[in-house]
């Protein structure tokens, strides 16, 4: 457990000395291999489900993490029907706090997916 928490803290926190460093998106997995799925809300389209997060803050004394929910969208900027078929994962203003004691692994993705430009057919005009 301690190794998992240390790995999250060391690998997922962006480099504070490099202003151009992007946060690393990831999914959290339970010991049964299930992903944590969060519910976010979009002003235009309503609620969405997402297993994708970036780490905002690691709270060592409580073994918790504050995570920003990322919204998976297609190349058109619209929500995807299948969570794994995203083109971009957009930062949202929605955060959750989770106990890292409930998770045993994480899978990272390229930071190039975070806020990757789309053609925005679903944006408010």
**Category by helix and strand content:** mainly beta
The number of domains: 1
The spatial strand order of the largest sheet comes to: 4-5-6
Number of helices: 1
Shape: globular
Strand content: 35-45%
Helix content: under 10%
Query: How large, in whole angstroms, is the Cα Rg?
Result: 15 Å
What's the total number of strands? 7
Largest sheet: 3 strands, antiparallel
Q: Could you state the order of secondary-structure elements as H and E?
A: HEEEEEEE
Mean pLDDT: 83
Distance between the termini: 48 Å
- Which regions have little confidence, pLDDT < 50, spanning 5+ residues? none
3D architecture notes:
The chain is mostly beta strands and 125 residues long. The protein has one domain (2-110). 9% of the residues lie in helices and 38% in strands. The protein has one helix at 2-12; strands at residues 26-29, 38-42, 46-50, 53-59, 64-73, 88-99, 105-108. It is globular.
Could you give a quick summary of the protein structure above?
The chain is mainly beta and 125 residues long. The chain has 1 helix and 7 strands. It has one domain.
Tags for this entry?
single chain, 125 residues, mainly beta, 1 helix, globular
Task: List the SSEs and their pairings.
Layout: H1 2-12, E1 26-29, E2 38-42, E3 46-50, E4 53-59, E5 64-73, E6 88-99, E7 105-108
Antiparallel strand pairs: 1-7, 2-3, 4-5, 5-6
């Amino acid at each position: 457990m301690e190794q998992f928490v240390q790995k999250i803290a060391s690998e997922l926190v962006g480099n504070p000395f490099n202003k151009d460093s992007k946060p690393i998106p990831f999914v959290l997995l339970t010991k049964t291999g299930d992903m944590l799925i969060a519910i976010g809300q979009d002003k235009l389209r309503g609620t969405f489900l997402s297993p994708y997060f970036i780490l905002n803050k690691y709270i060592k004394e409580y073994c918790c993490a504050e995570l920003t929910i990322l919204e998976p969208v297609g190349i058109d900027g619209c929500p995807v029907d299948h969570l794994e078929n995203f083109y971009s994962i957009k930062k949202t203003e929605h955060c959750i706090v989770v106990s890292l004691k409930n998770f045993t692994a994480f899978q990272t993705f390229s930071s190039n997916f975070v806020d990757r430009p789309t053609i925005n057919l679903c944006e408010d005009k």
